[in-house]
Amino acid sequence: MNPNHLTSAMIDKIVERKIEEMAKSPDTAIRQLLNYSSHFSFSRFQVPIFSILQHLLANKDSQYHIMLQNLLNNTSHSAIKNLGINLGYNSWTKGAQAVRATAQKAGYCIPWIIIFRWNPEKSNTVNLKNMSRFIRDGNKIGIYAFCIRQEVPHQSFGEIFNIFSKHSDSTFFWLLPNQMLAPVHLDMIRKCENVLTLFDGEDSYSLRNSSMLRERKALYGIYHIYSSFNTSEMRPDQWLDYYKMYQSSFIFMLPSDSCSEEDQKEASSFIYDARLHQKFPYYIVDFYSDIKEISRMISGTDCYLEIDSSGQVLHPYTSQVFVPDSRLAGYLASSMPAIVQTADHRLWHPAARSV
């Protein structure tokens, strides 16, 4: 079966039905998913997905059973469906094809995701108007996933919710700082089923905000920014148990800007082991490492684009100075590494490129 022959309406119905079946009988639905997914043997994501599902079926004590129960019981099924289709199909399937085609024509890597660091108190390049333009430009070349790391609290959310609504076929990961959300904002988050809202697990308002979103059956997750990671000293198994109180199915782990490469590698090793043995009742996302791994599966490179709140590129690093009216194409052309096409057009290798 070729997924290109499936219409959006067909995909919508299939995913909707599978979610309902999983809510009624998780094990039966997982077995059916494994059988159904075998028709898509070419999928670049087949191996990691199969591994998770097969381990879940084989291990009755897996904490992922609790994860699924929390997700299905505490979250609107339409929200699960819409975010899943946006990420799994629009970004990782249809979008990935466009990303590879665009890279082939442009001669440089095209990321599957763009990360914005947004400071509402600044009106520089990364304001909501320019961010929306970047998202629109990204959609045209296959980029349907975006992360907004909001740096300071903000009370006027109307414009950002307009962005989420306007780009309803894109996925947004929205990392919020510590602030108490008003009921109207919580209601707006519930309506945005293409957004995974993330709260800092150490912040004072996170438990209150997440509890109120759970009452609304809205999608949410928790994130943790670590500056160091030493398993022999910090005992991560113990402090990760702390996050169970949020009843979230997703915990995002991000290194601080000052975190050493050694500590990041140790964190990645711990997260890999925790996921392999399904130790916790939530899926731990190794944010930057997972972004790179997905990029390698999509296009053979580990590129992604991250722009700070002043408009400068954090990754890949470039000394290029950008002006407030810069377009996404300028950012990509000036920062992304060049690619060398091999005899096999499916393989891509980054090469040094001057800017």
Q: Percent of residues in helical segments?
A: 40-55%
Q: Report the CATH topology name of the largest domain.
A: TIM Barrel
Low-confidence stretches: 342-355
Through-space gap between termini: 43 Å
Give a short synopsis of this structure.
With 355 residues, the protein is an alpha/beta fold. The protein has helices spanning 8-24, 26-37, 46-58, 64-74, 77-106, 128-140, 158-166, 183-191, 206-215, 231-234, 236-241, 261-276, 287-299, 328-335, and strands spanning 113-118, 145-150, 171-176, 195-200, 220-226, 250-255, 283-286, 305-307, 313-315, 338-341, 348-351. The chain has 2 domains: 1-58, no CATH class; 63-351, Alpha-Beta Barrel (TIM Barrel), CATH 3.20.20.
Protein architecture, described:
- With 355 residues, the protein is an alpha/beta fold.
- It folds into 2 domains: 1-58, no CATH class; 63-351, TIM Barrel, CATH 3.20.20.
- Helix content is 48%, strand content 15%.
- It is built from 14 helices and 11 strands.
- The chain has helices at 8-24, 26-37, 46-58, 64-74, 77-106, 128-140, 158-166, 183-191, 206-215, 231-234, 236-241, 261-276, 287-299, 328-335; strands spanning 113-118, 145-150, 171-176, 195-200, 220-226, 250-255, 283-286, 305-307, 313-315, 338-341, 348-351.
- The strands form 2 sheets. It has a 9-stranded mixed beta sheet.
- The protein is globular, with a radius of gyration of 20 Å.
- The termini are far apart.
- The model is unreliable at 342-355 (pLDDT under 50).
